[in-house]
Amino acid sequence: MSFSVQVTPDLVALEPGATTPISIVVVNKGTEADRFEMEIDGIDAEWKAVPVGVFGVDAGETHSEKVFFKPPRASESLAGNYPFVVRLRSLVSGESKTVQGVAQVKPFHHLSMEVDPKKGFISPTRKQNVFDVTLVNLGNTEHTLQLLGNDPEDACAYEFDQEQVTIGAGQQRDVELVADPVKKPIFASGRLIGFTVTGRSVSTPSVGVSAQAQLEQRPLVTPTSIAVLVLLGLLFSAWFLMMPKPPTITFGVTPQKAMRGDTVTINWNAEHAKRIVIRAGDQEIYDGTELQKQMAYQVTTPGVIRFVAEASDGERKHEETQQVTVGTPAPIPPPQITSLDANPKRVKLGEPFVMKYSLSDSVSEAVLEPTGEAIDRVLNEREITPTRSGEIKYTLVAKNSAGEVARKSFTVFVRDESDARILDFHPSAKVVPANDGHVTLTWQVVNAVRLEIKVEGSRTDVVTPTTGSQDYVITGKTTFTLTATDSKGRKATAQTTVTMEPPAVPSSTGITSTATGTEAGGAGTETTGGTAGATTTTGGTATTGTATGTGTTGGHR
Description:
The protein is mostly beta strands. The strands form twelve sheets. It has a six-stranded mixed beta sheet, with no helix packed on it. It has a five-stranded mixed beta sheet with strand order 2-9-8-4-6, with no helix packed on it. A hairpin with a 3-residue loop joins strand 31 (365-369) and strand 32. It is elongated, with a radius of gyration of 50 Å.
């Protein structure tokens, strides 16, 4: 047996998050069909998919198998070259060969930035103008970022504790930023300064990230603010002393668009209330005293549902309303198993077969019974190795998101055969002379640990369990049975039968004569010659006969 293997292409460019196929080409240079077991080393198990791990190649044929690489689009899939090795082993001869390839993961960039707090302030008596800038590299390459801060009016100066930050793939870095107004008046109107923080890659200028924040500049005091504060204080005091506080409620329903059967979330926050009532249309769904609560509600009727929240203190009440539009979801098609087959349908115990299948787009999950294996509806092929012998019925169960089920079955016949194989068992002759009786048995066996020859009606001989021959002497028709036993005690048998020629019949030499006779009356029989000839006279009627032969003349009258 001889074979060769090749990876096409040997340099595979991989886009993170995308599936890339490669071809493993095997050439069987031998004169017999072979089966090969394929393994791939050097690539993360989660990155590769090998639909068919064991396959067969006929003698002299070239066979190609597909293998799929899919590194996840995540920072763990670092850009660079990943050498891998494809190892192929013949299951017949045990010969193993390897071939190398390189998987080249392409870079992708994904940077994010957040500024905390979103709004700071600064005043003559107090300031909160220190911001934390959080940088996250969600790509698969390292970047060194140049940090800058700016605003449209150049009203602030920006100082980073690090102006350049190196951040590896999947890493997070925090940088402190101080935003300080250029001018700081004591008496003036307040103003809000919006600024932008930008980080740009030094090595790849096209890659950048930015975030925005605000800085409120507050003066110590303004005449307008003093007057407003005094007036508001007077009004508030008068209202507070003269008026009791009425019940209030803040009410919300999310989402405001849903499908029939979906669940919406209702939440409220009430003050100065003794009773809370929530209604959905004409149905009262809550009546209690909890001022703060969140609850779930399933919408079952299409159309517009009006939700009402009412807070009351026994005399006064306050209502808030929300509306939710409920639609009818499109019907879910039933699941369908459009095709299902197994190849081959008769296998040896321990050998796999390939289940080929196709499922409709409405199938959300599929399971193979009785194994309980989850079936990927995208690959359309699955290699299965039976664990017992006999007739096994497999059923593919497909479900859609509505819980509807479709089933389809096939049957595989599994035979528990011996690993021992009798390649040849024959005698030197099927028929031997009667005066000799000698016969030589020749055999060729593989994978056997014990080999026996049973001679019919005689004995049993233990012989070499590989290739050999042995002489026997027979006295009549004899059946020989060859039994090969493998390491697990399973047996394979072959028979052959040898016969003997019958013994020769002795021959004699007599007189060649011709007799003719005519006789009347009486009864009698006369035979002349050793082969044929008779004259018979019965009851007075004479019959004339002629006989010619070599032998002994005899007769009976």
